[in-house]
């Protein structure tokens, strides 16, 4: 291993400094929330009413997506399986720890303390998902120190953007199409633009897959597919909103999956299926229903959105990804612009249409709960009438459907701009010479950062298989 990429000093020093800072911040600012504080719980408390039993199933499902789904999905390169899974493990673990603190300051800061509960962990996982999506753009071309630095910088930048959009622009985005998928996509593209490697535009000898690596990657796809309804519905209102979110996500994923199989066979020169399409394009429907996932869009609309997202994602991989690399210096390694960017834009547009079409005739009084910013403001007589029908309904801003739609558009542009600028700035930091960045020749190779087993580079070609057969 070249001394310039040795982790012997860099990684331990960086990690130990982060841990010291983390311990200090947790000691000063983090305490238990009401549902995990023993002082507020006793034998007379009804334990099953604790928020743990409401939030933990969603936390567990998203955990599976973060560590198994993303981890396996990113292990599709033949000689980069260790790095894809393990760097995902490392980055995700740190990102969640860091997001608890950073998001806590913006969302859960009370009385000088961050009150920690399972809901905080769930929110931190969503911030972690942003980092892991961005990671996909630079997969194979970065080392663990660079990825930790990316998480260190992206989490605060994301938290500021999220806070500003939700507090000042105020949007509906239940499935995170704007604040998770679009932000993560354009942040990753900004970073990979700075980290551009012209020598890799024509490919790399080890930028290949294998039978085993493709199977492992499809397992990641299946984990993400199965648990995506939890991802989209976790932060929606409990009850009918959450119920619709699960239904819409499943329908969107189902239609995108069968469409992906059809397109893969149709556009393959030999009429066969391509594993890359199965690994990525099948998931597009989970994103395209995100912005309107809790709305009364109708089941057929969710189904159609899945088809639209899948189609855009498929042709994005086929035509747009090579164009971005050749003409715009954006080497999007995992095609995050297709699976999260294009589909995020479709989803956001669908959400705007759903907002414009929302009426009391369709939603009833609950329209002002789902579209909370359209609720009458404080002092409006209509608010008192609605609060009799929906106890606890909070005052809104009195926006019309058209006004809310314009704010949604503003949020899209603001989020993309903030993400792209943040990604570019983070890319410059990741490019600093002491970050242990791999050379062009050593990209997509586990041997650079891992002790690999003796059979690591065995080529499973017919000659090798024959020699194994004859030896036995």
UniProtKB/TrEMBL annotation:
The chain crosses the membrane at residues 12-32, 58-80, 86-106, 118-139, 145-166, 178-196, 216-235, 247-267, 300-320, 341-359, 405-429. Keywords: Ammonia transport, Cell membrane, Glycoprotein, Membrane, Transmembrane, Transmembrane helix, Transport. It is found in: Cell membrane. InterPro entries: Ammonium/urea_transptr, NH4_transpt_AmtB-like_dom, RhesusRHD. GO terms for molecular function: ammonium channel activity. Functions as an ammonia transporter. May play a role in the elimination of ammonia in the gill. Belongs to the ammonium transporter (TC 2.A.49) family. Rh subfamily. One of its GO terms (biological process) is ammonium homeostasis. GO terms for cellular component: plasma membrane. It is a multi-pass membrane protein. This is Ammonium transporter AmtB-like domain-containing protein. Residues 22-433 form the Ammonium transporter AmtB-like domain.
